[in-house]
Amino acid sequence: GIYKTFYKCQSARDEGSLFQLRNLINRRDVHGHDTVTERFRAHFAFVEDVLDGYICSAFMDYFGMEKLESDPRQNKPPPLLSTWSNEDKLRWLQSIGRHILEVYIKKGTSFLETNEMEEMDNQSSQMQACYNAAEKVYMCECSKSYKTLGHFKRHLQSIHNWTFSQEGETTTCTKDSVAEARASFMKCSLILRDTYDAYQMADGNRIFRNAKFEMLLADAFHHTKYRLWLWRFLAYENALLSPRQAFEYKWNCCSNTNGGIGRNVPNDLLVEMNVNAIKQKLRSQGANVTYDSARVIAVSSQVQDDIKQNIIRQCGSHFGSARPPVSKVMDIALIIQEAEKGQLMKTILGREGVFANFVDPFQRVVPTAFHKWISAQKQRAKFELI
User: Fold this and answer.
1) pLDDT digits (tens, 9 = 90+) for 294-337
2) Cross-referenced InterPro entries, in alphabetical order (predicted)?
3) Three-state DSSP string of 266-311
4) Residue 131 φ/ψ, nearest 5 degrees
5) Tens-digit pLDDT profile for residues 348-374
6) Which of 27, 40, 309, 360 is least surrounded by CB atoms within 10 angstroms?
7) Domain residue spans of the chain
8) Strands lying side by side in the sheet with 145-146
């Protein structure tokens, strides 16, 4: 969704855009949303670098710095900062981070109206409580009955003065489309980074918290299958499983393959890795592969890998080769330079560029339609998810 929304070939001339930065720092493996699945690491690393560059550019604009080596001209650090305690320094940094988040990333935009969603949920619960399953009608407190929900809602509107939210397009007032697109990209990229880090650290709280934001983005990007998977992912933990099962489900959605902190992978990715390893061994047999040999490989491949890892660990030897970490300082410096040239952290009224009439993905979510879809999934879960 990030590449489909923000990576546009038409923006090659726009300074600081994703496509222009890709050509500038020569990321040859990045080709847009069509190849994200095949080359996820390259695309994810590019998003990470652009996000780091934008964050540094936002801090430079906050401190009034023209270059990375310049001294702050505004919002200068306290003169006796070095004498502060670590807790005071942390609070000072957190205050700056909150300011950057509110001014440069959120930019005063609001998410879905929580009160409106709660009101729709309460109305739906009250109408379901009025349903008589034996007679298959909706019974009102005034002793009138209706067979269909639509007629029952019209009765509540006309007689009992109920008000229902009308489904319609969200209206937004975009002052600077380029700055709005940049802020929206940073917002989506921060969610992606935090989710990726949560899986690596096996942090169940962050995984399930970010799943709510991901479900909103999946609805905005029209990723129907991913939206349904995320809803069921949350439903299992919040409603369908017992408290003990939900706790195990929440804190066992990752697996540690190499050992150590920050080396966890999602369980579905681990299954995919095992399947690819089995396919590779099957291809090595060529025409000699049989059903029995395939079954033996499928059963014993993971056991063989565990034995090999234990032997390597006990012998203290190093198996395979690893590339040294690549320094991205030069790339991030170029990204900061282009962001400063394009004035991405400034608000220039009337600026559009390629992102004319841009609407933030979170603002594309229609609350009434989204609530209607969630209510339908709840009804299906009563009969299907057992």
Assistant:
1) 888 888 877 777 777 777 777 776 666 667 777 788 889 999 98
2) DUF6589
3) EHHHHHHHHHHHHHHHHHHHHHHCCHHHHHHHHHHHHHHHHHHHHH
4) -80, 130
5) 877 777 777 788 888 888 888 888 888
6) 40
7) 259-315
8) 131-132, 137-139, 145-146
